[in-house]
Amino acid sequence: MHFMRTRLQKDDFSEPKGIPNDPRKRAKYLAIVEAALAAFSEYGYHDCPVSKIARKANVADGTIYLYFANKEEVLISVFQEKINRLITDIEELTEDCTNSWEKIEVLVRYHMTTLGNDRVLANFLQIQLRQSSSNIRIGIAAPLKKFYGLIEGFVLKGQKEGVIDSAINANIARKLIFGCFDEVISCWVLSRRQYDVTERIDDVLYILGRALVVDLENR
Amino acid sequence: MHFMRTRLQKDDFSEPKGIPNDPRKRAKYLAIVEAALAAFSEYGYHDCPVSKIARKANVADGTIYLYFANKEEVLISVFQEKINRLITDIEELTEDCTNSWEKIEVLVRYHMTTLGNDRVLANFLQIQLRQSSSNIRIGIAAPLKKFYGLIEGFVLKGQKEGVIDSAINANIARKLIFGCFDEVISCWVLSRRQYDVTERIDDVLYILGRALVVDLENR
Amino acid sequence: MHFMRTRLQKDDFSEPKGIPNDPRKRAKYLAIVEAALAAFSEYGYHDCPVSKIARKANVADGTIYLYFANKEEVLISVFQEKINRLITDIEELTEDCTNSWEKIEVLVRYHMTTLGNDRVLANFLQIQLRQSSSNIRIGIAAPLKKFYGLIEGFVLKGQKEGVIDSAINANIARKLIFGCFDEVISCWVLSRRQYDVTERIDDVLYILGRALVVDLENR
Amino acid sequence: MHFMRTRLQKDDFSEPKGIPNDPRKRAKYLAIVEAALAAFSEYGYHDCPVSKIARKANVADGTIYLYFANKEEVLISVFQEKINRLITDIEELTEDCTNSWEKIEVLVRYHMTTLGNDRVLANFLQIQLRQSSSNIRIGIAAPLKKFYGLIEGFVLKGQKEGVIDSAINANIARKLIFGCFDEVISCWVLSRRQYDVTERIDDVLYILGRALVVDLENR
DNA sequence: TATGAATGAGCCTTCATTCAT
DNA sequence: TATGAATGAAGGCTCATTCAT
């Protein structure tokens, strides 16, 4: 039976298989995740047969289903792996910042540099991930919220610290920040022209600084 | 790069079907466009069979292909219809503005109000449209660029007028503006919680004003 | 714009699947070939859905596409299987002939007997195979040329041996021979009346002998 | 209802519309026949939509169905028009021949010259006509039989006259003659190489003469 | 009579998923 | 655990035919 084919028959009770603990399994799990990242980037989620992922991961098609419930879960897992890594890195990098605006600067700089130097990852996160059914959106929601929360936290903290204008709606600020670099990177990924997005980072930070930081001239 | 995945074996003899002039045909063309908008919003582009559009438009499946070359072209046409309408409306509404920042305010306000009051349209523009293959992205590029150009034009003009900080990269400003309301609306559409995005307009404009406008305190 | 007018510009990289070596696969490949032969004969190529072949072969529709690139390739493969068998058999049978006219006699006799005793095969080779698009004609060309070459080779050799009139254009002779038994068998297959074509073999050989053989009365 | 789509529902009682008497109608009938000849030759029967015929004939798609019951009948009518013309011409041309072998010579010469100078007609008669369902074969049978009868009549008469070997089975002789020039012309039509088939006529007649004519050396 | 827009049945093909080995 | 051959549902699209005008 092919019961995953239609949403209606979606087995709501299937627990997500999750990241295996056994290190050997974990290696194969990660191999599939990396292969999927590459394959989705190359072909696009909807035009990427599971068999392409399997081939890139050097496993049989069926093996995918020993590690993931279905194709959607593969996409979700790729996102989780990548976004969690981003979050961890940013948390680490921002530890030593003197104020929250600086943390935002570090975040934007790190995020844009990371994606700007990894077009495959950028393509996945900016483009392929959006090719999603509502199932996927649900699966993505939690880690994405965490990433959002990270940014919004910086804004709120910055407001408490007095570096960020308290009149700003922090949630909107988060959307401004995210929306801004998201748009910058998306345009870059989709552009035929080859240019270096990381060169845009200062421009982005300048405008975000204007938008957020109190007493701008004294920055 | 994944854009070139399919060679565009362009059928040299198929004239683009475009918008029919004959009013009776035009009516059916528009009926299909509206049906497709609704169907894509409801099911998502990839999970929406052409037959669903046909049913919503009260025509036979084959009739779709008298007006559109294929399913992709339907999506593109819906986008063109809608974005052109938005552009026209905004151009009209901004005619009387005294300065370019005001124009941006009108644009943001109008855009957010329009989508905020039409969840189906918002879902289509913010979510379904992004579910696109590279072909679709190409088809969408032109009118989208026009919309982008409208915003960027306001920014540039504002800089000449002295209302917008000339140190800002206008292109990045465009991405900030677009990225910001885009993110705000996307989150709203995807949110389970029912709230009124139009209530966020002032917050958005406040932060965009900070980001762009010169001499903010004296505004 | 009509980017995607046709689904697939035939994948130029798809290697012809060919006859599998793995004996288990080969068995299924042959099962499909036989099923296709029967199905094409029964319904005619253009009126024979792939699903009919699958059903006759006791496989799922999709399985056909694990062995053949498309429906056309199925037809081509059936032809290749059958014509190659004919060629091999004839080559073997004609080894011991004392002269080339005898070889032609054996060829005609064997061909007409084989088809005359296998109406399904005859129907396929004489009728269904001709229902072909130019793609199919191209796919068929090589083995057909081999069969033609076999006949023409006999004629040429016969002329050297002095059994066949050297004034004859060997290529025309090939067409005479082939055209003659081809026509005889085609008429038989299409005829409602049930008769035994093999009874016509001697008549065919008599007239071909007149046409080709030198010094007929002394044969 | 689309009841012609499947054979089962074929309306056996629909009388063939036949050639109209009204001269104005007859002109349009012939226009469609000529357009169909060209269209079938160009695209192949199965790859030729009725709309292509209509366009070539400068009529609306629906108009075809005022003159012909269905697409099959169009093909049949083209064949009838053409073969009847051939038969009439040959009957006329052979009137003055001194013996039946001469008549056969005239027939072969005329047939091969006509088709050899009209690749479109040749393509239709040799290739497209064979792309036929059994319905078409039935519709074609009568005029084809007449053509066959013409040839076979010449053979029988020639045998009575003593110019053609009486030991020959006249029916087989007919198949030899027809099969031979049929094969010659088919190969020519399908060949990429551009050559002049009419130059093969003498070769064909030489070999047919050997096959049929009594006392060849004294010819 | 002529038109051509509309119909909708039907088919080739893909590919997520399963399961025998 | 891993394999990969097999499955078969599903959908985009075509086109012969009809019928309202």
Give an overview of the whole structure.
The structure is a homotetramer of 219-residue chains. In chain A, helix 6 crosses helix 8. The longest helix of chain A has 28 residues. Chain A is built from 9 helices and no strands. The N terminus of chain A is likely disordered. Chain A is mainly α and 219 residues long. Chain A has a domain of 145 residues: Tetracycline Repressor, domain 2. The interface between A and B is large, with 42 and 39 residues. Chain A binds a DNA duplex (21 and 21 nucleotides) through helix 2 and helix 3.
CATH architecture of one domain in chain A: Orthogonal Bundle
End-to-end separation of chain A: 63 Å
CATH superfamily of one domain in chain A: Tetracycline Repressor, domain 2
Number of helices of chain A: 9
Quick take:
4 copies of one chain form a homotetramer. Chain A is mostly helical and 219 residues long. Chain A is 66% helix and 0% strand.
What keywords describe this structure?
elongated; 66% helix; Tetracycline Repressor, domain 2; DNA-binding; mainly alpha; 219 residues; homotetramer
Secondary-structure blueprint:
Four copies of one chain form a homotetramer.
Chain A: H1 23-43, H2 50-57, H3 61-67, H4 71-93, H5 100-116, H6 119-126, H7 134-161, H8 170-190, H9 201-212
Chain A binds a DNA duplex (21 and 21 nucleotides) through helix 2 and helix 3.
